[in-house]
Design goal:
Blueprint: E1 5-11, E2 15-16, H1 26-40, E3 51-55, H2 67-74, E4 83-86, H3 92-105, E5 111-119, E6 125-126, E7 142-143, H4 163-174, H5 178-197, H6 229-233, E8 254-263, H7 265-271, E9 277-286, H8 296-306, E10 314-319, H9 324-333, H10 347-350, H11 354-372, E11 376-383, E12 387-395
Parallel strand pairs: 3-4, 3-5, 10-11
Antiparallel strand pairs: 1-8, 1-9, 2-8, 5-8, 6-7, 9-12, 11-12
Helix pairs in contact: 1-2, 3-11
Length: 407
């Protein structure tokens, strides 16, 4: 089998719901990150791109169903380059990366551009389609930005609770207090602000496309350097009067796009770069839909096992912070130093544009391993309706002889 590598990664700053990126269509966001990825590739002949695979959780609006193909065409790439869009909700772009890595491993591709996009600001409202025109009953418009919509009546009610209520249940089950959630959220903002000031994102983030009014976004719009556990403690719970989940310890609705070049050694030569990290293990897991936030636990355990390592070998973890409570529950379940998790901040601060988040955590992990000199890293993400994905990366610059993968 051919080794698959992360060769480069880039994203735009993530914008707030209704913020600086709200005037820009999701297919234009995706086209922008495709163009930037190709621009960074220098002398790459675009005809050497075997495929473009993007993740997107919506697809019901301006994404026009297959946003990967739309972005490829809008970016001006040759029409012969195929594009496919993956929808595994929040895990979509990490799934796109896993699919591409398998294509490379089995020899079907040498160079694949993966990524993801979401405009939660521009997600459409939809009406159920009626069996005949002009029904007598009223119809309810449904917001497609997040969560369940047009739920099948045969679904058990305990599965279809809101994501926030599901997180309250998870926090109860695993004993994650409000105080810990607020401390974790404040840490996310502090570390994200610190990473920006230290230049950690200088080579990982490019300015967003120019909006109709104003200047292009150059930094993540949701990061609040002044957040503290004390200020967050003053926020009211959103989903239960006596609950623990607030707007401050949950990831915000966001807009954004991310991308990464994945390839073989031949693909790296075509791109003109040295590989950043080897994709060493992959894992997927599923559990009860209402405990979706805990699914990364087994997904990451599987990926670690398939990489032939243990948690004691892991130097860095990038876990998408859908909610502080679910992040803490996962960290508690893994045998990992919490300080190694999201050292450059996480989604509570940076934002969580659903389809873009998986490629963000993968790209950040690759850059962290290089910057920090670590060898092994885990990128993981929870997914609504009870799923999780994870990928293990190995820093190719590591001088330690590679361990043999276990059977």
């Amino acid at each position: 089998m051919t080794e698959a590598y992360v060769l480069d990664a880039v994203r735009i700053p993530f914008g707030k719901f209704g913020g600086s990126l709200a005037s820009i269509r999701p297919d234009d966001l995706a086209a922008h990150i495709v163009r930037e990825s190709v621009r960074r590739a220098g002398d790459l002949d675009p005809r050497h791109i075997d495929e473009v695979i993007f993740g997107n959780a919506n697809g019901a609006g301006e994404e026009n169903r297959n946003v990967a193909r739309m972005a490829t065409l809008l970016a001006g790439l040759p029409v012969e380059i195929s594009g496919t869009t993956v929808n595994r909700l929040c895990g979509s772009s990490l799934d796109a990366s896993m699919i591409a890595s398998r294509q490379i491993a089995c020899g079907d591709a040498d160079l694949v551009l993966v990524g993801g996009v979401e405009s939660m600001s521009r997600a459409p409202w939809v009406l159920p389609k009626t069996e005949r025109p002009y029904p007598a009953a009223n119809l309810e418009a449904v917001n497609t930005a997040l969560g369940w919509r047009l739920v099948n009546e045969h679904m058990p009610k305990e599965w279809t609770v809101s994501l926030g209520e599901a997180t309250e249940q998870l926090a109860e089950k695993y004993g994650v207090s409000r105080e810990r959630q607020d401390e974790f959220a404040a840490r996310s903002h502090r570390l994200a602000a610190q990473a920006w000031s230290q230049g950690r994102y200088d080579d990982l983030v490019v300015a967003g496309p120019a909006p109709r009014k104003g200047e292009p976004l150059t930094r993540d719009e949701g990061v609040r350097a002044d957040s503290t556990p004390e200020t967050l403690a003053g926020l009211r719970p959103v989903f239960r009067p006596d609950g623990t989940v607030t707007a401050g310890n949950a990831s915000p609705l966001s807009d954004g796009a991310s991308a990464a070049w994945l390839g073989s050694e031949r693909g790296a030569q075509r791109l003109g770069v040295a590989p950043l990290a080897r994709i060493a293990g992959r894992g997927a897991a599923a559990n009860e839909p209402q405990y979706f936030g805990y699914a990364p636990v087994e997904a990451a355990n599987t990926a670690v096992r398939r990489a032939g390592i243990t948690w004691s070998d892991v130097d860095a973890v990038e876990l998408n912070e859908a909610f502080a409570a679910q992040s803490l529950a996962c960290i508690d379940a893994w045998d990992v130093d919490p300080d190694r998790v999201n050292a450059w901040g996480g989604a509570v601060a940076i934002g969580h544009p659903l389809g873009a988040s998986g490629a963000r955590v993968l790209g950040t992990l690759a850059r962290r391993l290089v910057a920090e000199g670590g060898r092994w890293g885990v990128a993981a993400i929870c997914i609504g309706v009870g799923q999780g994905l994870a990928v293990v990366l190995e820093n190719v610059a590591s001088t330690t002889p590679r361990q043999e993968a276990s059977a």
